[in-house]
Specification:
Layout lengths: L1 E2 L14 H4 L22 E2 L27 E5 L6 H6 L11 H13 L3 E9 L2 E8 L2 E8 L6 H4 L13 H17 L6 E9 L3 E9 L6 E7 L6 H7 L19 H17 L6 E9 L6 E8 L5 E9 L6 H6 L11 H17 L6 E9 L4 E9 L5 E8 L6 H5 L12 H14 L9 E4 L5 E7 L6 E10 L3 E13 L4 E10 L2 E10 L8 E17 L2 E20 L4 E15 L2 H4 E2 L8 E2 L1 H4 L1 H6 L1 E15 L10 E15 L3 E14 L4 E14 L35 E6 L26 E4 L4 E10 L4 H5 L2 E13 L15 E2 L5 E4 L26 E7 L6 E12 L2 E12 L9 E5 L4
Parallel strand pairs: 3-5, 6-8, 9-11, 12-14, 15-17
Antiparallel strand pairs: 1-4, 2-7, 4-5, 7-8, 10-11, 13-14, 16-17, 18-19, 19-20, 20-21, 21-22, 22-23, 23-24, 24-27, 25-26, 27-28, 28-29, 29-30, 30-33, 31-32, 31-37, 33-34, 34-38, 35-36, 36-37, 38-39, 39-40
Length: 908
């Protein structure tokens, strides 16, 4: 008889986990083929993968058969799932052949190579050959245990074993190695995987991978040997891999990655080449595990070489549209400059782009270097090889299932028959990316056409969802609790149209809006859209920490707009807005029966003259025109480019109000080097010119609801409406007898604590605002969390309102104190509810008959206010979050500062 021998279990057994002990009544065998099943339930470990392949089960040498024995028949015993004919097809023994030991050994090897059998043997009985087999079991399920850092959905798609497959040892070994490799990519080099098999009835098994993840391997130290010109710190700063330190908590680059190690060598070489060290090389890079087997120590050995300068630098052009001598004088590098490989690379890109603008799609720019080691000079010649002028043969759009072809095609800056232009391709790519309908980093592919002077442009797109359904709740230092819901489709019916519905609710504002926009109305290069909305807004002031509603404004309206492009980056947009406003005050707080006839009306002593003037119903008919320029590289998070907007609005085409409003806004972004810093500057301003005269002394011709306001969130460092003209109402202090406390000159004294006064912002006609901000890059771990810190400085002002003539005393005269401040004698009793405190003493801040108040008009100045601070944007799981800490550098009397501000769940 010839049969396989049982293979011993390799590796240290691991005790079964509680989940596996439930199978105590099931027979459980070793995963290694040939190991007999145990009589009682147990789990058996599988040998871990090693560099040396596990040998196949060794077959016992076949006994020498009698000479001249001829195979009379071949039968198969023990097969369950496989047909006998299928098993016989795997071996080369046939009826009528001479049976030999060598032939039987070959048959055993063939059966072992199939990996279908746990045991197999061959027996020859006087020419009747019997093949006994025990089939490998069928996998019932794959179980992963102990994995928390890598979830099942990350591991299972990567392994070969799957339910209902035939179990094989080689697949188990490969899967163990694959799982360990996945953990190594996560920086966990101490991960261990112990495979086990649980025997089930009907020759089925469960495969269990017991995973010990281990700690994440960090880079404890980076050593650099051989560097003399640059310090270790300078070179480590150029590497992607960072040393694990307390300050690198948010960085994911502190883990060891062999691919990153190779990339860092390229980064070192690139750094030295930009500094002129053309002979630099990395002699060796070794990563060693620390004695505790937890972290790595990386050691680089470098050879810097000598520093080179540019020698002769010129252009050798074979293109008829380019003069070599003229282009040589325009090169950015000059003889005597230190050699910089980055400058050479940038020059190649610029020359290639320049050739593309002139229609040479496949122009080949090759720099040729001639090194002069004695003088340490690097001579560079840029060869522009002759290439034919190329024309666009065809534009193909592939992969779009919902989006119509015309939506993509109209963004192309090149059409069939046009001369190829690389700038047009770049602009096309940017415009299609800005649609945000397709995959990120989309690029237009260039394919050779049917002739050497023809090119095909392909847009291979991958559509992504463009519908948005949002519901959020948040808290803001401005709006307190906020609820918001919206639904929007940015690619409605695949036509590139945007439709939306939004509803917002908070304690002090409510709004609902329906909007529609189409960038190409009737397939023409004209944009258009409309908005229909209702907005209820409650204005407020603060008394201490209490927020008090001053007036309510309900606006119902609609807006129509249409725009046409003037250039690739500039457009002209016209609009028409019709608003119906209803402004009202709380009659219980601000109305009194002044004449004693039972009819209440707005009391200037309670509300102030400016609020009394604002109440009422009015219709506003506004025509607007704006000129917009936009060259940003991204709508969501720009890093370069600029936006400029100039707008003018005229209210007076019908309606009840007359004014002209002008605004301007410009913003520029710079990507500072390749460091990830983003610097931006913002400047904006506006003015309102009244076109009507309103009656009354000190009454501004622009209504309160039409003026500009400035403060948080657009001007950080100040409270909402904290900058600009305002009125502070101060109450005279009273003694225990209820009489005003007088100063040495016999004038009343007033409560000057701001938190105890009524503070009303009344807006202004003119404003300006400037901002400088530097966004600071963090490690990839913090970027994944959506953290974006920045430092900033703001400057601005709001002014220009008419100086209000406030109220007069009952006698009709204006009384002033020694400082010229107007005094007012109340005529209608207490403004506060009670004239006494809870303990029965006189309320010193109540306005009672016979007491005085004064109103201060402050903040009406164009003098700049300046603030600076630090802030963090965070795309948190519960909505966008912005927090700012600010310091006021310059302010004007009356301005309301705010050192700390935050917003959650609102846009910032």
């Amino acid at each position: 008889m010839i049969e396989t021998g049982a293979m011993p279990v390799v590796g240290n057994p691991v005790s079964a986990r509680p989940a596996l002990r439930l199978a105590s009544l099931l027979a459980c065998g070793s995963i290694l083929a040939g190991m007999p099943a145990l009589a009682h339930a147990q789990t058996a470990p599988v040998p871990a993968p090693s560099a040396t392949p596990t040998p196949a089960p060794a077959a016992t040498p076949a006994p020498v058969a009698p000479r001249g024995s001829i195979i009379q028949s071949i039968s198969v015993v023990g097969a369950e799932r496989l047909e006998a004919s299928t098993i016989l097809s795997y071996i080369r023994l046939r009826v009528g052949q001479e049976y030999t030991s060598a032939g039987a050994d070959e048959a055993l090897k063939d059966l072992g190579a199939t990996e279908l059998f746990a045991n197999f043997s061959i027996r020859n009985d006087a020419g009747n050959v019997v093949i006994n087999v025990t089939e490998n079991p069928v996998i019932n399920r794959i179980v992963l245990e102990g994995n928390s850092r890598l979830k099942n959905d990350k591991i299972l798609p990567e392994i070969k074993l799957a339910p209902r497959q035939i179990f094989t040892r080689s697949k188990v070994r490969a899967d163990v190695a694959r799982i360990i490799e996945l953990y190594k990519r996560q920086g966990r080099f101490a991960a261990q995987v112990e495979p086990k098999m649980v025997q089930l009835p009907q020759n089925r098994v469960d495969i269990v991978f017991e995973i010990t993840e281990g700690p994440k391997s960090k880079v404890r130290q980076i050593n650099i040997l051989g560097n003399e010109k640059f310090s270790d710190g300078d070179l480590r700063g150029e590497m992607v891999t960072k040393q694990a330190r307390v300050t690198s908590f948010f960085s994911s680059n502190t883990s060891y990655d062999p691919d990153r190690l190779a990339f860092d060598q390229q980064k070192l070489r690139q750094f030295y080449l930009t500094e002129g060290y053309a002979d630099f090389r990395v002699v060796s890079a070794v990563a060693e595990l620390t004695p505790d087997q937890r972290d790595f120590i990386i050691t680089y050995v470098v050879e810097e070489g000598e520093r080179y300068q540019f020698g002769e630098v010129k252009v050798d052009s074979q293109l008829r549209d380019f003069d070599s001598d003229v282009m040589s004088t325009q090169l950015p590098m000059k003889e005597g400059d230190f050699y910089n490989a980055k400058t050479v690379e940038d020059t190649v890109e610029q020359l290639t782009e320049l050739a593309g603008r002139y229609g040479y799609a496949f122009a080949d720019v090759q720099p040729r270097f001639r090194r002069d080691p004695e003088n340490r000079k690097m001579n560079v010649t840029f060869n522009l090889r002759e290439a034919p002028r190329v024309y666009v043969e065809r534009v193909d759009i592939n992969g779009n299932t919902l989006t119509q072809d015309k939506v993509v095609r109209r963004e192309f800056r090149l059409a069939e028959g046009d001369a190829f232009n690389s700038l047009g391709v770049q602009r096309t790519t940017a415009r299609i990316n800005s649609l945000a309908y397709f995959q990120e980093n989309f690029e237009v592919k260039q394919v050779e056409g049917s002739a050497p002077d023809r090119i095909i442009l392909e847009a291979n797109v991958e559509e992504r969802p463009t519908g948005e359904l949002q519901f959020s709740a948040g808290f803001s230092s401005i709006e307190q609790f906020i609820l918001a819901g919206s639904i929007r489709q940015r690619n409605f019916r695949g036509r590139g149209q945007t439709v939306g519905l939004s509803i917002n609710y908070s304690q002090f504002s409510r709004s609902a809006q329906v909007s529609f926009s189409d960038p190409y109305i009737f397939d023409r290069n004209i944009s258009g859209g409309f908005d229909i909305y209702r907005r209820d807004f409650n204005s407020f002031n603060f008394t201490g920490n209490d927020r008090n509603t001053t007036f309510q404004q309900a606006t119902t309206g609609m807006s129509l707009r249409a725009g046409v492009p003037l250039t690739e980056y500039m457009s002209l947009v016209g609009s028409y807005t019709l608003n119906y406003d209803d402004v009202s005050l709380d009659e219980n707080l601000f109305f009194t029966d002044v004449n004693g006839d039972g009819v209440t009306e707005c009391d200037p002593l309670r509300a102030g003259r400016f609020l009394c003037d604002a109440i009422g119903e009015r219709l506003s008919s506004i025509v607007g025109l704006s000129l917009n320029y936009n060259s940003l590289n991204s709508r969501i998070r720009p890093s370069r480019g600029r936006t400029v907007s100039l707008s003018a609005e005229f209210a007076g085409l019908g309606g009840d109000v007359r004014y002209a409003r002008f605004r301007g806004r410009a913003q520029q972004f710079w990507n500072v080097g390749n460091s990830g810093f983003i610097f931006s500057l913002l400047a904006e301003g506006g003015t309102i010119i009244p076109l009507q005269e309103r009656e009354g002394a000190g009454v501004d011709d622009v209504l309160l609801t039409d003026r500009f306001f400035l403060g948080e969130p657009q001007f950080r460092g100040f409270a909402i409406r904290g900058v600009g003209p305002r009125i502070l109402t101060q109450v005279s202090l009273l003694n225990n007898a209820g009489n005003p406390i007088l100063d040495a000159n016999g004038n009343p004294t007033y409560d000057t604590v701001r938190e105890n006064n009524r503070d009303d912002a009344i807006g202004g006609r003119n404003y300006y605002l400037g901002r400088a901000e530097l966004e600071i890059p963090l490690g990839s771990g913090a970027r994944d969390l959506g953290l974006r810190p920045s430092i900033w400085a703001d400057v601005g002002a709001l002014w220009g309102v008419e100086t209000p003539v406030l109220t007069v005393n009952p006698a009709g005269t204006q009384q002033r104190d020694a400082n010229g401040v107007l005094l007012y004698q109340t005529a209608s009793g207490s403004i506060t509810t009670n004239a006494t405190e809870a303990d029965g003493t006189v309320n010193r801040r109540a306005i009672v008959p016979g007491s005085n108040i004064r109103e201060l008009f402050l903040g009406n100045s164009p003098s700049p206010r300046v603030t600076a601070g630090i802030g963090v944007n965070w795309n948190s799981p519960f909505g966008p979050f912005r927090i700012d800490f600010s310091q006021t550098i310059r302010k004007v009397e009356g301005d309301d500062e705010r050192r700390f501000t935050f917003n959650v769940g609102t846009q910032f």
